[in-house]
């Protein structure tokens, strides 16, 4: 049967040649189809790579959105590390305030309080409440604070920022700001954090 088909194919090629029509031999046909298949595979590989790149971009965007929406905290392993780092400022007085609402501010403030007390810092209850709205975490000392209090404030900012908590060191003035006590105000989570 195959021999018959090969004979018929040869006769068809010969007849086509007599009529001036170019007909591929089986080898030429296979070569041409192989090139077409290789080209199609290359296009599919390119499209596959484009889709993978788009998927990676979407995964990164989703991770950023999830990070923005997730509550701020200090993980347990980082808590242990930060507590050890801040222990060199044991005895440092601090006060901590946060808005009371349903956001992550109060749980985060409690976690920071626990961190500092665990590191041997001295909690002083605040004399007021925060009014208004702010974002991030402010760490402040009064004007004329000792070098030790300023260093402790900067160490706390570094510790909180290592947990990606957007803390800033500020100097404060006024009768309500004791000189060597560190104040901590926990505000809203920044939208772009």
Helix and strand topology:
Layout: H1 2-18, H2 26-69, H3 76-86, E1 93-98, H4 105-118, E2 122-123, E3 137-142, H5 147-162, E4 167-172, E5 182-186
Parallel strand pairs: 1-2, 1-5, 3-4
Antiparallel strand pairs: 3-5
Please give a quick description of this structure.
It contains 5 helices and 5 strands. It has 2 domains: 2-69, no CATH class; 76-186, Alpha-Beta Plaits.
Query: What's the CATH class label of the largest domain?
Result: Alpha Beta
Mass-distribution shape: rod-shaped
What percent strand? 5-15%
Q: How do the strands line up in the largest sheet?
A: 2-1-5-3-4
Q: Stretches where pLDDT falls below 50 for ≥5 residues?
A: none
Helix percentage:
40-55%
- Major sheet, described briefly? 5 strands, mixed
Characteristic key phrases:
alpha/beta; five-stranded mixed beta sheet; 2 domains; 193 residues; Alpha-Beta Plaits
Structure description:
This protein has 193 residues and is of the alpha/beta class. It has two domains: 68 residues, no CATH class; 111 residues, Alpha-Beta Plaits. 53% of the residues lie in helices and 13% in strands. It has a five-stranded mixed beta sheet with strand order 2-1-5-3-4. β1, α4 and β2 form a beta-alpha-beta unit. The longest helix has 44 residues. The mean pLDDT is 82.
């Amino acid at each position: 049967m195959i021999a018959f088909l090969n004979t018929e194919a040869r006769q068809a090629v010969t007849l086509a040649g007599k009529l001036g029509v170019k007909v591929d031999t089986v080898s030429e046909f296979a070569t041409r189809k192989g090139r077409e298949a290789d080209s199609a595979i290359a296009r599919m590989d390119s499209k596959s790579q484009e889709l993978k790149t788009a998927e990676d971009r979407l995964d990164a965007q989703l991770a950023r959105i999830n990070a923005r929406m997730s509550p701020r905290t200090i993980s347990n392993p980082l808590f242990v590390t930060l507590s050890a780092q801040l222990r060199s400022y044991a005895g440092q007085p601090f006060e901590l305030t946060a808005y009371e609402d349903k956001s992550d501010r109060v749980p985060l403030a409690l976690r920071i309080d626990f961190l500092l007390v665990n590191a041997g810092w001295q909690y002083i209850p605040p004399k007021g409440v925060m009014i208004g709205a702010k974002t991030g975490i402010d760490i402040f000392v009064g004007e004329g604070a000792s070098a030790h209090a300023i260093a402790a404030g900067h160490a706390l900012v570094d510790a909180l920022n290592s947990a990606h908590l957007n803390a800033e060191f500020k100097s404060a003035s006024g009768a309500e700001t004791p000189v060597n006590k560190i104040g901590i105000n926990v505000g809203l989570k920044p939208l772009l954090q």
